[in-house]
Amino acid sequence: MNYDSPGRQQPPAGQMTRRTWFQASVGALTLAALPKTEVVAQPNSEQPHAKTLKPYELAPLPYATNALEGFLSAEILELHHGKHHAGYVKGLNSTLDAIEEARKQNNYVAIKALERELAFHGSGHILHTLYWNSMSPNGGGEPGPVLTEHLKQSFGTIDGFRKHFAAATKAAEASGWGILAYEPFGGRLIVTAAESHQQMAFQGAVPLLVCDVWEHAYYLRYQNRRSDYVDKFFEVIDWKFGEQRLSANIR
Ligand SMILES: [Fe+2]
Fold first, then answer.
1. CA of 87 to the centre of ligand 1 (A)
2. Looking at the 3D structure of the chain, how many domains does it have?
3. Which of 15, 78, 172, 198 has its CA 20 to 30 A from that of 214?
């Protein structure tokens, strides 16, 4: 198993609403949901807004650590969120600090490695934030009307999507992710299987629902049975979250 360096202590769960939790956790993600005019209106010279940017933060889980007990134990969620996800947040902030220092020093000798770290930790933080929201103690069942329409357009049937997503996720090489994403240029949904966090990315596609298949996500309960873990993921999948993200990004 792979373990990241320990991060800050996990704040208590249940202190924020689901919406405020998500907004606080990944401010950068809201860009994807903004109207196009607001996205292109971002400041673009001499970083006049840089002083207002805050470090990334590890938000509490949107539910209690034992809320998904039938699928994942509290121990797994505590380790996964409080250690692994926290490690990506810590790595993302320290990488941004190092890049800022490189800019100040006008010394880009290490920029290639820094950009690699940025993609790894940044993608790790974003995907984990989406992962917690992709599951719910009230999850499962069937998707809402908007998601259903688009799933049928892109995959033929809902069951066709389930099988496609499950197969791609189970087949992700080594540590990776299964991702349902909206691709705005073609106006369709796609399934991608990321290796690590950032490899095999479909640039421009907006992730809607994700399933973590790094061993740290399931090994303590499922051991090497990744297939069982992925199949049970559909019992807790939060279709409502996918519906909200799709609705906010449809063009
Ligand atoms: Fe993970």
1. 10
2. 2
3. 15
> How close is the Cα of 56 to the center of ligand 1, in Å?
17
pLDDT computed for residue 251 by the predictor: 75
**What is the extent of the structural domain holding 168?**
145-249
**If you measure from the C-alpha of residue 196 to the centroid of ligand 1, how many angstroms do you get, rounded to a whole number?**
10
Q: Where are the alpha helices (DSSP H) in 30-85?
A: 30-33, 36-40, 74-79
Cα(124)–Cα(238) distance, integer angstroms: 20
Ligand 1 centroid from CA 125, angstroms: 9
Question: Does 111 share its domain with 191?
Answer: no
Q: How does the average pLDDT of the chain come out, rounded?
A: 86
Q: Report the predicted TM-score, pTM, of the whole model to 2 decimal places.
A: 0.82
Taking the alpha carbons at both ends of the chain, their separation in whole angstroms is 41
Instruction: Please give the helix or strand (H or E) that residue 22 lies within, else none.
Output: helix 18-25
Q: Report CA(82)–ligand 1 centroid distance (Å).
A: 11
Q: Output the six-digit token pair for 1.
A: 């198993």
The whole-number average pLDDT for the span 185-190 is 96
- Gap from CA of 132 to ligand 1 centroid (Å): 10
49 and 105 belong to one structural domain: yes
